[in-house]
Structure to design on (256 residues):
């Protein structure tokens, strides 16, 4: 019976946490769409989440594009299909690897940072002081971060798509013997607007997940420095799992 009791407690714990996260997400959405908006906070978060993440996203994209081109060339050589390298590279980056890898990189950088920042404010009672001064913490802390991440990640993914394709182009023309002009022409002819649109939709959803998970874990943190560290870890793990799950769901919806 102890085994069943443990299973029951774990199930109730999961349901309880899911409900809390759903309620927090709903409150965050309301704070994002209803005024007043703290424009200065939103602008600050746009810079911190978007602009400062460009180097990480760019480096990740160029190496992923280069590695993808090499692997596709190696696999295609077994079937005399090397000419399809540009087509598969641009399709893989725009629909899948660009948004997913950008989301995962941002979850490690942004989600943990949001959780640590808000968590520190929670354990030092700054959030309680904010509420005492009649300032809604959701509108001042959560909403700017959610809006900034949701708006900037699609732009980052668009940049990552371009850099990733150029990474594949560099390797293909420099090491695999492709003609640069023909490679780019095949890439542009094969690429469709739906491929880019799907990647940008995924990016917006991933950005929302990253910010909400970071804010949720930070907002509910307790126990001093240890609790803040735990919140940052949980934010990264939760955002990563939810990004991969959401990626499958969105892909299944659009493919079906």
């Amino acid at each position: 019976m102890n085994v069943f009791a443990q299973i029951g407690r774990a199930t109730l714990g999961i349901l309880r946490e899911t409900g809390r996260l759903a309620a927090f997400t709903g409150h965050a959405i309301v704070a994002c769409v209803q005024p007043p908006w703290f424009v200065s906070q939103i602008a600050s978060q746009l810079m911190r989440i978007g602009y400062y993440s460009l180097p990480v996203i760019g480096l990740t994209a160029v190496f992923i594009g280069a590695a993808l081109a090499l692997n596709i060339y190696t696999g295609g050589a077994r079937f005399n299909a090397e000419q399809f390298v540009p087509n598969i590279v641009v399709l893989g980056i725009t629909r899948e690897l660009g948004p997913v890898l950008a989301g995962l990189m941002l979850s490690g950088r942004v989600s943990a940072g949001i959780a640590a920042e808000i968590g520190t404010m929670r354990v030092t009672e700054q959030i309680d002081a904010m509420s005492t001064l009649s300032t809604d913490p959701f509108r001042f802390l959560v909403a700017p971060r959610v809006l900034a991440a949701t708006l900037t990640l699609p732009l980052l993914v668009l940049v990552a798509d371009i850099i990733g394709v150029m990474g594949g182009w560099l390797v293909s023309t420099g090491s695999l013997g492709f003609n640069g002009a023909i490679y780019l022409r095949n890439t542009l002819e094969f690429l469709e607007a739906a491929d880019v649109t799907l990647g940008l939709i995924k990016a917006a959803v991933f950005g929302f997940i990253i910010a909400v998970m970071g804010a949720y874990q930070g907002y509910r943190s307790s126990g001093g420095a240890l609790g803040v560290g735990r919140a940052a870890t949980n934010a990264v793990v939760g955002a990563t799992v939810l990004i991969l799950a959401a990626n499958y769901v969105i892909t299944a919806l659009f493919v079906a």
Summary: The two ends are 44 Å apart (CA to CA). DSSP finds nine helices and no strands in the chain.
